Amino acid sequence: MADSISVISEGVKPKPAQPRPERQAERRHVRGGVTVVTVDSPGCVIEGQLMDVSCGGFRFSHHDRGLRSGQKVAVVYPWGQLQAQVVWTRISADGVESGCMVLGSK
């Protein structure tokens, strides 16, 4: 993380890592399927599994390595859509996880 990296040069003491601010909303662990459609590529449908939710966002696992920070997405439900923005995506050997911030609903 950029906020925890200190540059060490001759004669300069490293700064201690700054703690991350506490989350605004409590996360709740959940399990369930989720369908996410990228707004900039409407044909890109991502099927995944919810991992946790809060009043401000959600985290889900999936297999789309192309999902990037800043992308706008629509979470599709039978009764409507929830608009969100991808905040981060982590790719590992086990798959892909993304964290999204809720923008609103339709």
By DSSP, the count of extended strands is 6
CATH topology: Thrombin, subunit H
How do the strands line up in the largest sheet? 1-2-3-6-5-4
Number of domains: 1
Output mean pLDDT. 79
Approximate helicity band: under 10%
The major sheet is characterized as:
6 strands, antiparallel, barrel
Could you explain the architecture of this structure?
Helix content is 0%, strand content 54%. The protein is an all-beta fold and 106 residues long. It has a single domain, classed as Thrombin, subunit H (Beta Barrel). Strands 1-2-3-6-5-4 form a 6-stranded antiparallel barrel. It is globular, with a radius of gyration of 17 Å. The model is unreliable at 1-21 (pLDDT under 50).
Keywords:
106 residues, Thrombin, subunit H, six-stranded antiparallel barrel, 6 strands, 0% helix, 54% strand
In short:
The protein is an all-beta fold. Helix content is 0%, strand content 54%. β2 (45-54) and β3 (57-62) form a beta hairpin.
What is the topology?
Elements: E1 28-38, E2 45-54, E3 57-62, E4 72-77, E5 80-92, E6 95-105
Antiparallel strand pairs: 1-2, 1-4, 2-3, 3-6, 4-5, 5-6
